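quick one, 188 residues, struct below
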Amino acid sequence: EEVSLPWGGKLVFLNSVVGGAIDARFMPAILKGVMDCMEHGPLTGSYARDVRVIVYDGKMHPVDSNELSFMLAARHAFSDAFKQAGPKILEPIYDLEVYVPADFMGDVMSDLQGRRALIMGMDSEAGYQKLSAKIPLKELASYSISLSSLTGGRASFTTKFASYELVPSDIQSKLIADHEAELEKDAE
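---
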């Protein structure tokens, strides 16, 4: 079964249980547990997407088994398996066009490189330089203020969503550590 996720991407969910180890009536609860864990993100609290889950075994008790038990077990199993699978975090990348007077071009390029931007090209347009780049959304947070400060308010920019790309491994490690610290703080 392929499930389109409300937050984008998909989940491929396969029931490969043989011999009745898990009654088919518990599969919707298992699917719900997996989707709940994906929605709240096992790594950083952000959505997980494009995952394949195969349920191949389990145990049932004729009296004590219920949907809640299987949903919770699925959440824990998914979280553990997901972390062991070596997942990668994606971040939104935007196309950026900056229109800047030529005498500020060096400062603007330097600032963009410090924001993990990838410079794609430069053109002259109506007395301004047009700089094209790809930049992570996170790095755009205070860009308007920074650009205004660098150019005395003489530059402008536009952005447009481009794609999702892998977060560098050092940033991924920091995001995971920050999320784990936040969870520990909330548990206290």
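The first strand starts at residue 2 and ends at 4.
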